[in-house]
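B., you asked whether I could sanity-check this one before it goes into the benchmark set. Here's the sequence:
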Amino acid sequence: MTAMATRMRRVTPMTTMPMPMAMRRMSMPTIIIMITATISTMATLMAIMITMRMITTTTTTSIAVTTIATAIPMLMKTNKPPQKRRLVTSDAAMSSEPAASQPAGMPESEAAALYRLMTWLSPSFPVGAFSYSSGIEWAVEAGDVTNAASLREWLGAMLTEGAGICDGIFLAHSYRAASSGDDVWLAEISELASAFMPSRERHLETTAQGRAFIEIARAAWPAAQLDRLIDACKTAIVYPVAVGLVGAAHAIPIAPTVHAFLHAVTSNWISAGARLIPLGQTDSQRLLAELEAAVADTAKHALAASLDDLGSATFRADLASMRHETQYTRLFRS
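And here's what the prediction gave me:
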């Protein structure tokens, strides 16, 4: 028994795990203090890491805010429209008055004259011009006018050598007689213009349009001296004389009045030819453009001509207006 006890005492220390030397020397309070310090250290490290993350986030946000704050003025500056550069002009080209003091647009008198001319000589002004062809209907029936080219030749001759130039001369002289107040001269011009028509239908055409023109213009744009001018004529007033009287009563310049009248007459001739041949709208406008120079030259000659220069060389057109009276099938009144 003594021998077994001695053997057991020798074996037991070998199976028991020896304690570290530091643990043997530390008491329980010391160990608790160390654990607490360790936890405190870990908490401090975590606080430092969170602080660094917050600093990084704040820095990033600050950089982003700074970038946006810098970009917005740049974008606003870029979107501004570029400033117009002032043109450098010579002293001779610069006006003596400031631009703000110069009136915009045309003068009131010129605007009124243009407005009235465009209205009175428009195809929509109700003088019944659309129902007259000045003998073109018979020319188409006879085969003298068959296409745009032959219509251009026919109208060019009527404009420069026939009814066009004669009507322009009557308009210019009636305008001057009305403006000067010479009632005797005005009556002579009106009588000569009425007698100058080559046929009954042409006389009907020009007097009917003259009467309608005066009545409508007087009703819409009354003028003080227009009634006196009408009474001075004493006979049926033909279309060009009527335009001359109304233009003079409203003090519209004579040159644009003659030019606008010849343009209106030529346009009505083209309209009649386009319906009779027939022609398309584009061909009609092309024809009017080709006659532009002839209209301008005829107006210029009419303004410079005297009554002694009156005359017609368009015998075929005069015969056409006569034969149209007995034409079997007719769309127009002349």
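One thing to flag: The first helix runs from residue 2 to 15. Otherwise nothing jumped out at me.
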